[in-house]
Design goal:
Length: 262
């Protein structure tokens, strides 16, 4: 298990073969830096050192589930997981807590994952108001800044592509000015750069920072840009990017854009 984020003395840990996303989502907790989605190869594993399940319930509107687990003075909120745990059960790091579910919250291109938030236990339910998570910037995958990708696999909803001419290992497979970037560009309207940077060049465009979070992440608005594909999804510890468009496997996709970030 590796540490991917910290909130005070709490460390969020996941298997090395998983990948994760702090900002590749349209939901408020991600844009505020208080949520992380983890994509497991199989069972969802408890990501904290220890805890006790305090609530398990099915959500009535979206056919999803909520699991709340108390760990010390905080609570871990878990969504999009069919629970295999019960209220009152004690957990330690790596214990299975369920199986990812295909939630109706998801976009068509979204893969199954567990959504985590660290929250005060007297305010566990809201979409906003979680405790900010500081990402750990690992050197995990080969990264590029050339915006050219080889398409290796296509599904009905997206294609996976690997970066060409990788320069170095970074947290994500795409970098600009040496900073790894992550998010859904432009389909979620913003992305995060891991570090303090005021301006980046992405897909042939100069983008200026919209906000700087206290957890050390720079946020960039991309609502006003258009790419040569519907979108590019970039994740942490994942060697591929997700292209929202139609491509032939084995071809090279050169992604370019127009517009400005405001």
């Amino acid at each position: 298990m590796i540490t991917i984020g910290k909130a005070g003395n709490i460390e969020v840990k996941v298997p090395r073969d998983s990948y994760w996303s702090f900002f590749n989502s349209p939901y408020p907790g991600h844009k505020e830096g208080t949520a992380v989605d983890v994509y497991y190869t199989d069972h969802v594993l408890f990501p904290l050192e220890e805890g006790k399940v305090v609530e398990v319930k099915r959500l009535p509107i979206k056919g999803d589930y909520l699991i709340l687990i108390k760990s010390g003075s905080i609570c871990l909120k878990v969504l999009h997981v069919v629970p295999s745990v019960s209220k009152g059960e004690t957990l330690v790091l790596g214990d299975p807590i369920g199986i990812p579910i295909r939630s109706s919250f998801f976009c068509p291109w979204t893969d199954n994952h567990a959504h985590y938030e660290i929250r005060n236990c007297d305010d566990p339910y809201r979409a906003r108001g979680g405790i900010q998570i500081t990402p750990v910037v690992l050197r995990a995958v080969k990264a590029t800044n050339t915006w050219e990708f080889e398409v290796v696999e296509c599904t009905p909803n997206y294609c996976l592509a690997r970066p060409l001419k990788p320069k170095e290992k970074q947290l994500t497979p795409v970098i600009s000015k040496g900073f790894p970037i992550e998010g859904g560009i432009p389909h979620y309207g913003y992305f995060g750069a891991f570090g303090d940077v005021k301006e980046l060049n992405i897909f042939g465009m100069r983008i200026t920072r919209g906000a700087f979070l206290k957890n050390g992440v720079s946020l960039f608005n991309v609502r006003n840009i258009v790419l040569s594909v519907r979108g590019v999804g970039i994740y942490c510890n994942y060697k591929f990017v997700k292209l929202l468009g139609r491509f032939e496997e084995g071809t090279v996709a050169k992604i370019y854009g127009a517009g400005t970030g405001i």
